[in-house]
Amino acid sequence: MYMSNFRIKKVNNREENIKGSNTLEKKHMDNVKKINENKNNINNLNELLNNINLELNILEEKRDNNEIIDLEHRANLLNKKDEYEAQIDNIKKNNNEINYYDLTGDLLNKYYNLREEDNTGKSSINIMNILNSNNKKDKTKNLTTKSKLFENYCQRVDGIRVNKDDGSDRIKYCEYCFIEKTLETESSSYVCTNCGLMEYVLLDEDLMIKEYSP
Q1: 74 with 163, same domain?
Q2: Taking the chain, what is the end-to-end CA distance rounded to the nearest angstrom?
Q3: Domain extent for 73
């Protein structure tokens, strides 16, 4: 990677973790992991559903024998039954995975196409090519595109805005509490200390707010 003045900076593990947590690929892999964990949970859900049905059957037998039962407990069991059946049906139909890729498929396709372009020819890098102005422009364009893809991904999947900050507007105010937000580098976000509203930003290895660049 090209660095101005050829200066090499050592990055500590904490800074790497902060930067690494804010990449489209990292967020994508985390969501894929959640989807797979949800699929693997179907046996546990079936067991919970069976236990609920057993309890309901016992209560129905008591009702048939004119015994008094806890109607509130029965209602809670019926609600849980509906919830477990809906989750099981959702897993069997693979709705979570289908909906996820329907929501993000175009962004992921563009992102990995850019990654493939970036990796092409890396085995034969020439320093003159790196310093060539046209290559630098292409690289900048790719980074800008990746930044936009990352921002769109967060908006679609997490419902959050990822704003670039060039340093001209470092003071952020909560739109609900009308007080200044606090920058928390650990979570890469501005946080309202009153209501907790978060606004994510992008940090480089120096913990300076900047445009996202994987």
Answers
A1: no
A2: 11
A3: 41-92
